[in-house]
């Protein structure tokens, strides 16, 4: 998988002065566009679109300093419809406008080319299983919240604290299949998974029942799920599990992510410092 991702990175370098065809990138990586974006964001720590933008502005910056072509010619080559749009993007990355950079020979910011390599750390194995599930409903309460990669998500904390405990108790009685009990569900995430993008967050249960008054329902079709478990400090262990699934498990197994909700069941220790967690991710087998 990593070798194919590196081939996709080579394609990006050849096409920095053209429109990047994400479908072609996915074909080179022999995976889906959805999984490619997910994998890239997890491995690189930045969305695919942001990496491409920064690589373009890095190469464009070198051409600005070289002074062989006009600023407008460089802007058009790298996909900007006007000199003004190019100048705004250039300044946002480099901290100086292209005209001033050319006049003064200013130091510019560089986005290095990426190469993915597999690094083996630790000696413990990731605990997982693969399950086939019929269709089901997520029934509960929903909020639109920002994505936070590290540390507590205050929007989620405030949302959960505002839920009447009796409502959660009634919801818990509707749970009739795995994962049992009240769970957290994330859906409708931005494909880039960039920090600060928004998602639908549900506090609810997995059930075959309809949604009671005052709650919402998210129908989930039948499919394959990978189920991962972890224990450790909260929320670090859970966030690290999410990271490790995409940086270690997917590159080493014949599965890729598919669109669908991500389900997390958490049992906190008394005081909330430690957590046992079970993460359900929708997956499909990679094509041979």
Note down, in words, how this protein is organized:
Helix 3 (33-44) crosses helix 10 (236-252), helix 4 (48-66) packs across helix 7 (98-104) and helix 5 (71-77) crosses helix 6 (83-94). The protein has helices spanning 2-14, 22-28, 33-44, 48-66, 71-77, 83-94, 98-104, 154-161, 165-172, 236-252, and strands at residues 127-133, 136-146, 183-187, 198-207, 216-220, 223-233, 255-257, 262-268, 274-285. A hairpin with a 5-residue loop joins strand 8 (262-268) and strand 9 (274-285). It has 288 residues and is an alpha+beta fold. Strands 1, 2, 3, 4, 5, 6, 7, 8 and 9 form a 9-stranded antiparallel sheet that branches. The protein is elongated, with a radius of gyration of 22 Å. Helix content is 38%, strand content 25%. The longest helix has 19 residues, at 48-66.
Features:
9 strands, 38% helix, alpha+beta, 288 residues, elongated
Q: Main sheet? A: 9 strands, antiparallel
Radius of gyration: 22 Å
Q: How does the helix and strand content classify structurally?
A: alpha+beta
Termini separation: 12 Å
- Total strand segments: 9
Helix coverage percent of residues? 25-40%
Query: Strand-and-helix sequence, N→C?
Result: HHHHHHHEEHHEEEEHEEE
Please count the helical segments: 10
Low-confidence runs of at least 5 consecutive residues? none
What is the overall shape? elongated
Mean pLDDT: 90
Strand content: 15-25%
Structure, briefly:
The protein is an alpha+beta fold and 288 residues long. Helices cover 38% and strands 25% of the residues. The protein has helices at 2-14, 22-28, 33-44, 48-66, 71-77, 83-94, 98-104, 154-161, 165-172, 236-252; strands at 127-133, 136-146, 183-187, 198-207, 216-220, 223-233, 255-257, 262-268, 274-285.
């Amino acid at each position: 998988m990593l070798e194919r991702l590196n081939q996709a990175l080579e394609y990006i370098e050849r096409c920095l002065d053209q429109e990047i065809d994400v479908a072609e990138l996915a074909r080179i990586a022999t995976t889906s566009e959805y999984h490619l974006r997910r994998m890239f964001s997890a491995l690189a720590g930045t969305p695919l679109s942001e990496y491409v933008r920064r690589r373009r502005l890095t190469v464009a910056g070198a051409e600005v300093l070289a002074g062989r072509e006009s600023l407008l010619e460089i802007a058009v080559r790298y996909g900007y419809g006007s000199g003004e749009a190019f100048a705004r993007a250039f300044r946002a990355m480099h901290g100086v406008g292209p005209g001033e950079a050319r006049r003064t020979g200013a130091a510019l910011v560089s986005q290095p080319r990426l190469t993915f390599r597999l690094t083996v750390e630790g000696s413990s194995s990731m605990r997982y299983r693969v399950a086939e599930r019929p269709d089901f409903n997520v029934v509960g309460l929903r909020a639109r919240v920002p994505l936070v990669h590290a540390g507590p998500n205050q929007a989620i904390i405030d949302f959960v604290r505002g839920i009447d405990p009796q409502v959660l108790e009634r919801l818990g009685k509707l749970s009739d299949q795995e994962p049992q009990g009240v769970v957290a569900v994330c859906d409708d995430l931005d494909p880039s998974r960039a920090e600060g993008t928004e998602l639908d967050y549900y506090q609810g249960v997995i059930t075959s029942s309809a949604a009671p008054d005052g709650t919402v329902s998210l129908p989930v079709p039948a499919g394959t799920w990978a189920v991962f478990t972890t224990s450790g400090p909260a929320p670090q262990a859970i966030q690290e599990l999410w990271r490790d699934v995409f940086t270690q498990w997917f590159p080493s197994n014949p599965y890729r992510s598919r669109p669908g909700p991500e389900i997390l069941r958490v049992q906190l220790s008394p005081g909330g410092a430690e957590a046992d967690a079970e993460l359900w991710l929708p997956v499909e087998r990679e094509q041979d």
